[in-house]
Structures are given as C-alpha cells and as structure tokens.
Amino acid sequence: MKTLRFVLEAYRKNVRWTLVGVVSSLLGTACQVVIPVFFKLVIDELSPEAEVHRGIAAWGEGVVRALVGEQADVAVYIQASLGVAVAFAAALAVATFYKRYYLIRLSRKVEYELKKEMYEHLQNLPGRYYDAKRSGGLMSLMTSDVEAVRMMIGPAIMYLSSTLLLTPAALAIMLTLNATLTGFALLPLVGLALATLYFSALRANDRVAVKPHASPVLHAIEYLCGRQSLEQLERFRSLGGAQSYPSRTKDKIAVDFSTGSVGLGVAVTAFASLTQDYLNAHGLLDPQREGRFIALLGDAELDEGNIYEALIEAYKHDIRNTWWIVDYNRQSLDATT
What we know:
The protein is mostly helical. The chain has 2 domains: 2-177, ABC transporter type 1, transmembrane domain (ABC transporter transmembrane region fold), CATH 1.20.1560.10; 189-327, Rossmann fold (3-Layer(aba) Sandwich). It is 65% helix and 5% strand. The chain is built from 12 helices and 3 strands; from the N terminus they run H-H-H-H-H-H-H-H-E-H-H-H-E-H-E. The protein has a 3-stranded parallel β-sheet, with helices on one face. Strand 2 (293-298), helix 12 (305-317) and strand 3 (322-327) form a beta-alpha-beta unit. Helix 3 crosses helix 4 and helix 4 (74-123) runs antiparallel to helix 6 (135-177). The model has no long low-confidence stretch (mean pLDDT 85).
C-alpha cells in the first residue's frame, strides 16, 4: 500500500498532465477502433453483394452518407470513406503525441525527483551503513528499481488505459460483425502461451512445469514436434493413452515435471532452481547443462497456499533463473477468477 500511495501522490501532484495523457490515450484508442470500419465500408461497396450494416458499421455508413448524400456514386462514396479514415488517423497521431508527451514526461519527472531524494538520503547515512551494504545493491536501487517505478507511473498507465478500452471494443465489434468467425479467431489463444514457449523461447536445457489443465495443448505440441504418437492422442485420458495431467511416469513423452496436483508447478520449479544453484556453487554442474525453469500456471491455481510459500522461499534465496507465467483466463470449475 505504501508503494501505491507513492504512485497516487505522484498523479495528484501532476493531475493535469495525468488527465491529458489518459484522455489522449483513450481518444487515440477510440480512433484505432474506428479506422478499420471505414475500410470495411470501402470493401463492402466494391463487393457485388450488398450487405446490411449493423452496429458500428451502420454508424460509419451514416457518417459517410451525411457527407456525400444518399445518392452518391461508388467513387465518391469510397473517396469519402477513405477521407474519414485519414481524418481519424490524423487524430490518432495527435492523440498519440500528447499521450506520450505528458505521460512519459510525467514519469521522467518523477524519476528525477525520486533519484534526487534517494541521493540526498544516502548522503546523510553513516559510514557503517555502507560497510554493511553492497555498493552493487545500491546502484541497482538507483537504476533498475527506479526505472521500474518510472515504467509503472508512465508507460504502464498509458498502455493499461489503452488496453482496457481496445480489447472489449474490438471484441464487441467482431462479435457484432460475425460471432462464428470471432470464435475461430480467438481459438488459438487457448494454446498461445505454450506454443510461444515451445516454438520460440525455450532453450535445450530449459525445463517446463505445465499446468494440469493445459495437458491437451502440451500433447498437441509434442505431436507436432514428432515426439507424440497419434495412437496416444486418440486414447487421451484413457488407460494407456496420453495422461490428462502431465506425468513423468505414465506419459510416453518426456515430461519435465509431474504436475498432477494443482499449484505444484511453482514449487517444483523454485526448488529445481535452488538445486541447480547449489550444484553450481559447489562446482558439480557443467555450465553447458545449466538451464531455466518455467512454470505455466492457471489463474485459479493462485488459490493454492503452497504457491505463496514457494514465493517466500524464492525471495529468500534470491533465485534468478525461474519464470512463472500466469494464464489469466478467468475460468475455474467453481467460480470466475
């Protein structure tokens, strides 16, 4: 709460910059949502089949018809539609400039004031403080930690305000135009996190703890990589087939961690990382075999107490080579998370 009070106080002291930045961000996002509508009108006008526009598309058509009239020919209608799109693009450019100018300027101002305050405080500390503290830790506080505060005050609020409007607005428009096509467009998001990990981010020695309910995606990826058989997939969740929860002993594929107990991924990757650190400290591990430990967990798993116990251990021992990725899908068997 102390950190939150600091951030809110920074916004209070610079309320005009904050308001102009946030409003510009929202207006720019609205322009982003509207611009594609006018390109849709152009495409529909060139299509041999007439379409009855609904929702925001009907609004866009009304704007164009108000400019050129109901009886305008195709060429004039298209020119007007493109002209309106260009006008909104210009408005987007102006809004983007003011959004970045005020919010980034605010974050830099707070960064400067915070560094100045910290420096003045450090000057007044006794010499024994510096005997007990590492200079590298102090430098990290003055650089990376202050940079994290700056990112939270400026870019974070800029992107958050944009995302909160863009995502629901875009989904609403897509559903209005074609609900079925929207469903197909969103379907790949189910396995996006795992697909990104396995096809882009993972290195040879990395180890992954896959959340139990993502096992279908894991088996599908292993099949695409040629490590899972079609027979195993066809017998998924059946005796002798691919397991519904990743298992090192029962699955035919190479599973890094068994995660049959919900919430286990964070703990096993944390202690695997600690084990690797121990082996490194005692010269028992070949540096070429060192890897990262990654846990993909669902948002509902955050109800498991052992996750927070693992977080405490991770913080206490300063583990660095572990990723914990939360799949925020808001789905649970007994509630909306």
